[in-house]
Design brief:
By secondary structure, this protein is mainly α. It has 15 helices and three strands. It has a three-stranded antiparallel β-sheet.
Length: 327
């Protein structure tokens, strides 16, 4: 054992009220900037706030205002994220992006005489290859059959099947799947209107199996859930109490169904990874996959080109002139 925490949960935030008054005011103004001028969603503002609160808590013992923030202090803060909070390189890189935005804003508003992040290099980001299920494993996961007494009168296995088919067929994030409304399901054209990160809207096609599963759910399961006491708010996927299915519940359903299928370490993003990888293996264009996933930067999508090693070997064996001459 190396003494590290056994869980990967976000550590508790420092006490904002313990910050010097000038720093508290700066954080409050920065939140207003993100909300009013940048138009960020509440969840994005919360993520920025958490990052900057960590930063200010580390800077506060050395200087009561942002004017005392130096490149060295900021660099020491970034180093502590890995040593004291056990953040991965990718998380430190994301955190640095928040810190850069904060100090650019602070410099523009006169809270700092200069931007201390100007000379900081971006940490090397080791890209962990995503976990991907094989086609056979996906078939096993999607082969959902009700067990005796499982659904207690309401065929929830139809909802679970529709959810899993949706995640795999359209490559949705868990939060995106949970937020879909009945009006977002464009049945006539077999597509979904999805609101992704940054409130960006995209149209994503649904495959035939996903449409069949969704139609069965809408015909034989959702009407019973709508009659429950909970307010469904027009959401497409509902919990057993008739309330909107939350993001956490999406994770729980995927984990539960994967366990029943004998699969380990499967979560909603595994299905999203599998969706992208299987499309590329099948010959889809990288730009098309980027659009379907809702990635702003194609560099984020490119990681999927490194996943299917067996296909790379087959291509090399088939097309390399030296290999062909030995056939």
């Amino acid at each position: 054992m190396d003494g590290r925490p056994l869980t990967r949960q976000r550590p508790p935030s420092p006490d904002e009220h313990a910050l010097p008054e000038a720093m508290r005011q700066a954080l409050h103004r920065f939140r207003g900037y993100l909300r009013v001028e940048c138009g960020l969603a509440p969840r994005s503002i919360e993520a920025y706030s958490w990052d900057i609160l960590l930063l200010l808590a580390d800077l506060a013992p050395h200087a009561p205002t942002l004017a005392g923030a130096t490149p060295r202090r900021v660099a020491e803060h970034l180093a502590s994220l890995k040593t004291a909070r056990y953040m991965q390189a990718a998380s430190v890189t994301r955190h640095l992006a928040s810190v850069r935005v904060f100090f650019r804003w602070a410099f523009a508003t006169g809270l700092t005489p200069k931007d201390p992040t100007d000379i900081l290099e971006r940490p090397t980001r080791w890209k962990r290859l995503p976990d991907v299920l094989s086609s056979a494993q996906m078939r096993k996961l999607l082969d959902i059959r009700p067990t005796a007494g499982e659904d207690e009168g309401v065929p929830l296995h139809l909802r679970d099947r529709a959810l899993l088919e949706l995640l795999y067929s359209s490559g949705l994030r868990a939060s995106e799947a949970a937020a879909i409304t009945t009006s977002d399901y464009l049945e006539a054209v077999g597509a979904l209107r999805v609101i992704g990160k940054g409130s960006k809207v995209r149209l994503v096609p649904m495959g035939v199996p996903a449409r069949r599963a969704m139609d069965e759910y809408l015909a034989h399961c959702r009407p019973a859930l709508v009659r429950m006491e909970g307010g469904h708010e027009g959401r497409l996927l509902l919990s057993k109490s008739g309330r909107p299915l939350e993001r956490v519940a999406v994770w729980q359903i995927v984990k539960r169904r994967a366990a029943k299928a004998g699969l380990r370490d499967v979560h909603p993003h595994t299905l999203r990874h599998s969706f992208a990888t299987h499309l590329l293996v099948g010959g889809a264009d990288l730009r098309v996959v980027q659009e379907l996933l809702g990635h702003a930067d194609i560099g984020t999508t490119q990681i999927y080109t490194h996943v299917d090693r067996s296909r790379l070997k087959d291509v090399h064996r088939t097309f390399h002139p030296r290999e062909r001459s030995q056939a």
